[in-house]
Design goal:
Bound molecules: 3-[O-phosphonopyridoxyl]--amino-benzoic acid
Number of strands: 16
Radius of gyration: 19 Å
Structural class: alpha+beta
Order of helices and strands: EEHEEHHEEHEHEEEEHEHEEEHE
CATH architecture of the largest domain: Alpha-Beta Barrel
Strand content: 25-35%
Largest sheet: 9 strands, mixed
Length: 287
């Protein structure tokens, strides 16, 4: 396996960073999870744009232009002869001292591209649907660590994931500080209510899969809007599903023990899954 590390391709065993890298010491850095389908990197430009936006907020200078970063992703995929892959782009602050101050990181940021295979959930859950659970850990406040900031500090999400797995579920539903539904640890949430598609506007990452699904829904003349929602609205929804690069679109059939709709993946969910798979190998950067 070849890994892109600061402009060079190295073997997995040699892909190492300094213990003084602030990405390691503090989670000071940004990342993206991306997928390729049949030699097409789905929504690559959108992912790279979001990476640079997160870096901008962190005042982290990425030593590559967006075009060079796209090229690095494509070259890594080609070096590994992968046509369908999961791609992880990581940019960390780089080497500093033991203090927090990023200005002490005198060198350049560390840039890494890893390409591999990933299956997040067992295949049968895509057919039968998955159960999720609400967790006590509240999604980060916009005013603290904004959920739009896709940083290397994912402890908020990891705490929630631990709580879900402790309760026997593979994904956690997180609320915002006001008690409204926010998102899951690595996925956005959607419900269908009276035939209309709804998703939270608050305390969530603006997922690229989420955007793609909203666009597909509009094309299929399914009404879609962003709406604050409570757990009650999820419990009484006709359908529920999650979206994310790793998860793609996964139907949810149980939330906190309540059966959603008929307890099987609903017709709108299935329609959107089908439509999604028609665009994944088309919409993006081919290689
Ligand atoms: N919310 C959060 C908090 C995320 O981290 C999404 C939503 C979905 O966004 P996209 O753009 O992928 O549609 C993410 C995605 C995982 C995993 O293991 C997920 C993400 C990153 C790393 C791992 O599920 N991010």
């Amino acid at each position: 396996m070849k890994i892109y590390l600061n402009g060079k391709f190295v073997e997995k065993k040699d892909a190492k960073v300094s213990v003084f890298d602030h990405g390691f010491l503090y989670g000071d850095g940004v990342f993206e999870g991306i997928r390729s389908y049949k030699r097409n990197v789905f929504k690559l430009q959108e992912h790279i744009q979001r990476l640079y936006e997160s870096a901008h907020t962190l005042m982290l200078k990425i030593p590559l232009t967006q075009a060079q970063m796209i090229d690095a992703v494509v070259r890594t995929l080609k070096s590994n002869h992968l046509s369908d892959a999961y791609i992880r782009v990581i940019v960390s602050r780089g080497e500093g001292d033991l203090g927090l101050d990023p200005r002490k990181c005198q060198g350049t940021a560390t840039v890494i591209v890893i390409t591999d295979k990933i299956t997040l959930y067992p295949q049968e859950l895509y057919q039968k649907g998955m159960a999720i659970i609400t967790v006590p850990t509240v999604r980060n406040l916009n005013e603290a660590v904004n959920p739009q900031l896709k940083s290397l500090n994912y402890l908020n999400n990891i705490l929630a994931k631990i709580e879900a797995t402790n309760s026997g579920c593979m994904e956690a539903l997180m609320m915002d500080a006001q008690g409204f539904v926010a998102e899951c640890t690595g996925d956005n949430v959607f419900i269908v209510r009276r035939g209309e598609l709804l998703t939270p506007p608050n305390a969530r990452l603006r997922g690229i899969t989420r955007d793609a699904v909203m666009e597909l829904a509009k094309k299929q003349k399914i009404m879609v809007s962003e709406k604050l929602m409570t757990r009650h609205e999820i419990f009484v929804a006709e359908e529920c599903f999650l979206t994310g690069t790793a998860a793609e679109i996964i139907p949810i059939v149980k939330v906190d023990g309540r059966v959603i709709g008929d307890g099987v993946p609903g017709p709108i969910t299935l329609k959107l899954i089908k439509a999604f798979h028609t665009i994944t190998s088309k919409d993006g950067v081919k290689y």
